[in-house]
Specification:
Length: about 425
């Protein structure tokens, strides 16, 4: 009893942890970038009439910085759906695009570590010359064998780097935001692309021309030295992968969008006894309505359950007429109580992780209970220390994982195929 009491005293809800963090004076602001921003080094200062917050509304990615009122301030707040209506005006749209591009370039150039030694004058010079480009899923950014004419910084999304060989395609790596590519071809004497880079999802990159890149590395030797060190390391890693080339089919992995997920619910089928405690715990935590289905793809002995993946590029958030689906500060995608049940988010989710359920309202004058539909999706039990499904599993079979890290070891070590798998009643046998 004494041990359990002591243990219980140490456990604190996630909300309490967040309150403690908010009350603690921190030197750094954690942002959606490769580095943190110091409080006393603001990225920009806004004046009356300036618009801010549009970058997240347009890209659906988390906030890239924190905005603090320096004095008494009155702001007009608009939900994303209002901004969508305003963008139908061509003049407003062009101004919004111009602001977005300028701020995206400014904040990204300042946040990438390789530019830490650049002077402010040169950053201003680059900001006026670099280009922000967007690519759709599957679109080739640069192709192996083509002349190297640009250097790229990944601002949003995932980029697949691959080489083509007589035996097929060899995937070398996956680059997330904050990464860069194109330096090998620009620094080599041949000036030829050594790999093909393809957008895995909706990708934004900052493009620096060959001329500006060479001017940068010529003026700042430390930048050139760090880029050459990374290029050498990448070339050696690529040779090692080619020497140990295995038949690793990752098409299913990519096609199912697992690289875009931030949090997957996976079940270890070697440990799982099909007791259904994870589903019951989920239902108990959400008014009797479960937000997970033990059904989905199987990779080796792991089942990817049907539950919200907290995608980096959340298509479900596009077009909500009342702005009820949003991302919390800690990245959980949640659906607010004012959802009107239109079903647009459920239709937009390509993985079937959002469902519509009927809820009863209090009785009216006729004595009949009204029923309304609302969308439901996993919110990672953000008001608990950990997801209820993971906590309740008696066999340690349920886990919330980061897909690139979790599956990277599997895909790099042996052949892993994705196959449909069901654990519904009547199909409880292992395939």
């Amino acid at each position: 009893k004494g041990f359990l009491s002591k243990l219980a005293s140490k456990l604190k809800p996630r909300k309490e942890h967040q309150r403690e963090e908010e009350n603690t004076v921190r030197k750094y602001i954690q942002i959606d970038a490769p580095v943190d921003l110091e409080y006393d080094h603001p990225v920009a200062k806004l004046q009356a009439g300036d618009l801010f917050g549009e970058m997240t509304c347009m890209s659906f990615y988390p906030r890239s910085a924190t905005v603090v009122a320096a004095e008494y301030t009155v702001c007009l707040e608009m939900l994303r759906n209002v901004l969508d209506v305003l963008q139908k005006n061509k003049t407003f749209r062009s101004k919004l695009d111009a602001n977005y591009r300028a701020r995206a370039l400014e904040t990204h150039l300042k946040s990438v570590p390789i530019f830490s030694s650049l002077t402010q004058d040169f950053i201003d010079y680059l900001r006026d010359r670099v280009e922000l480009r967007r690519f759709t899923p599957g679109q080739v950014i640069c192709r192996q064998g083509d002349p190297a004419g640009s250097f790229y910084l990944v601002r949003i999304g995932f980029v697949k780097v691959s080489e083509h060989h007589p035996g097929g395609e060899l995937v070398l790596s996956y680059l997330a935001r904050g990464s860069y590519f194109g330096e090998i071809g620009l620094l080599s004497d041949e000036g030829i692309r050594t790999a093909t880079c393809t957008a895995l999802d909706h990708v934004e990159v900052v493009r620096i021309s060959r001329e500006d890149f060479l001017a940068m590395v010529g003026r700042f030797p430390q930048v050139r030295a760090s880029l050459e060190a990374v290029a050498k390391e990448r070339i050696e890693e690529n040779r090692s992968r080619l020497h140990n080339l295995q038949n690793v089919p990752v098409d299913d992995f990519l096609r199912q969008g697992l690289m875009d997920a931030q949090s997957l619910l996976v079940l270890d089928l070697d440990r799982c006894t099909r007791c259904d405690q994870c589903v019951k715990a989920c239902a108990d935590a959400h008014d009797g309505i479960t937000r997970l289905i033990r059904d989905g793809l199987r990779f080796d002995h792991y089942l990817v359950a049907t539950s919200c993946r907290q995608c980096r590029d959340p298509l479900c958030m596009v077009g909500c007429p009342v702005g009820s689906i949003r991302r919390r500060n800690s990245l959980e995608v949640i659906i607010e109580d004012w959802c009107v049940g239109c079903g647009l988010c459920a239709n937009n989710c390509p993985y079937g992780n959002i469902n519509l359920h009927e809820f009863e309202l209090p009785s009216g004058g006729t004595g009949q209970k009204a029923k309304v539909k609302k969308a439901t999706s996993c919110n990672l039990c953000y008001d608990h220390p950990e997801p209820s499904c993971v906590y309740a599993c008696p066999h340690d079979a349920a886990h919330r994982v980061n897909p690139p890290e979790f599956f990277g070891e599997m895909l790099g070590g042996k052949e892993v195929k994705a196959v449909p798998y069901s654990m519904s009643p009547g199909m409880m046998d292992r395939r």
